[in-house]
Amino acid sequence: MKVGVNALFLIPGEVGGSETYLVETLRALAATQPDLELVVFTNLECDAFLCERLDEFPNVSFQLVPVRARNRAARILTEQFKLPGLVREAGVQVLWSPGYTAPLRAPCPQVVSILDMQYLSHPADLTWPAWLATHTLVMQAAERCDHVLTLSEFAKREIIREAGVAPEKVTPTLLAAAPDFFEPVGPETLAALRREVLGFAEPFILCVAHTYPHKNVHRLVEAFAQLGDLPHRLVLVGRPQRGEREVQAALARLPDATRVKRLERTTRADLVALYQAADVFAFPSLYEGFGLPVLEAMAAGTPVVAMRKASIPEVGGEAIAYCEQDDAAELAGRIREILVFSAEERKVRLASARVRAASFSWAATAATVADVLRAVGARR
Q1: pLDDT of residue 186
Q2: What is the arrangement of strands in the sheet containing 94-97, beginning at the earlier edge strand?
Q3: What's the count of helices (H) and strands (E) in the chain, helices before strands?
Q4: Which H or E run contains 315?
Q5: Where in the chain does DSSP place strands (E)?
């Protein structure tokens, strides 16, 4: 079966978890589902990026569509009016759009991935024009596509409720931590991380999240202010977004803001090392379709504290600590509790978390996606 993959949304390094979702699922599909011939429609920003990661697979080909995804209007118009013709010319039997939106008319059956409905619960993440365009296109994709993929049972319930989609039309496809998060990094790597990336030797608390309002990063900074008696620093990995003003205000209230290290970008190797070097991974997000950083921290053997919100309990289960309220004092208390674990208690908890993390796999994700693509493609 020839499957088209609509990657026109992808801007490497800028679209968050949807980049990981697309790349890792495609790699697993190519490696484990050889009967699927994948034709990936790329844009000017992601063509070389995807070719570099998927060129090794003989069942993957690429078709460059000359549009820049940063020009949102041009990308939407290209997806709606040019992509369907390219799909027809390529002889695609089913089109998969992994980035929330899809052509409203296509020459073949369609599957769309709506990863969550976060833009509805937290509209402040987007400008008003972007919100309106997103809402219109997502709702139309949910209605017109033959099937919807999402990331969790929580996200499925959200899609059913908000978009009015029949339950049998929505399939969750859980994500996974990549193998390198499970592999211990050596002491030399950790020393280089502290010397060349962090610039300090003190223990630290880690958070990986762009500062969108729903990521709630400012709440962690407020909690960190209540941990001033500890030797720990706070490391925030992620780019400034529409919630940055609240983060900056919380930083300004700290007695010593130099105890917070900001890293907008890291290499993959440095990110793995950061997870493994941290004493605690704190994830204060109020809404996640899945919450992959939680799973990555679990795989890395780092204790996690997160909000008991949205899909996070599906990912962490009983292997992580939760805050029941969006409250800085409670978050600080949970972090403090983790830091005073005995060595034996820490060992038991981290072993449980790693076992749970290992139960998620990209091969399983790809198998579910492939089953849906085959079933939808067969309806032609």
Answers
A1: 94
A2: 60-64, 37-42, 2-6, 94-97, 110-113, 147-150, 170-172
A3: 16, 13
A4: helix 312-316
A5: 2-6, 37-42, 60-64, 94-97, 110-113, 147-150, 170-172, 204-208, 233-237, 260-263, 280-283, 304-307, 321-323
Contact (Cβ atoms closer than 8 angstroms) between residue 248 and residue 240: no
* C-beta of residue 159 within 8 angstroms of C-beta of residue 170: yes
Question: Rounded to an integer, what distance in angstroms lies between the CA atom of residue 208 and that of residue 188?
Answer: 23
Say how far apart CA 361 and CA 375 lie, in whole Å. Answer: 22
Q: How far apart are CA 34 and CA 59, in angstroms?
A: 7
* Mean per-residue pLDDT, 204-233: 97
What integer best gives the mean pLDDT of the chain? 96
**Could you tell me if 217 and 230 lie in one domain?**
yes
Same domain, 78 and 152: yes
C-alpha triplet 150, 153, 154: angle, nearest 5° = 95
Domain count, the chain: 2
Query: What pTM was computed for the model?
Result: 0.92
Half-sphere exposure of 288 (CA within 13 A, CB side): 28
Domain interval for residue 303 = 179-358
d(CA 304, CA 293): 10
The model's pLDDT over 82-92, given as tens digits with 9 standing for 90+, comes to: 999 999 999 99
Q: Per-residue DSSP letters for 138-149?
A: HHHHHHHSSEEE
Distance of CA 143 to the CA centre of its chain: 24
Provide, rounded to the nearest whole percent, the portion of the chain with pLDDT above 70.
100
DSSP assignment of 104-162, as one string?
Answer: SS-SS-EEEE----HHHH-GGGS-HHHHHHHHHHHHHHHHHSSEEEESSHHHHHHHHHH
User: What are 298-333's pLDDT values in tens digits?
Assistant: 999 999 999 999 999 999 999 999 999 999 999 999
Same domain? For 198 and 332 the reply is: yes
Quick one: tokens of 124? 């402040």
Residues 124 and 57 both lie in one domain: yes
Paired strand residues for 263:
237
Q: Which parts of 175-318 are beta strand (E)?
A: 204-208, 233-237, 260-263, 280-283, 304-307
Tell me the average pLDDT across 73-98.
97
Q: Take residue 197 and report the two structure tokens written for it.
A: 């990336």
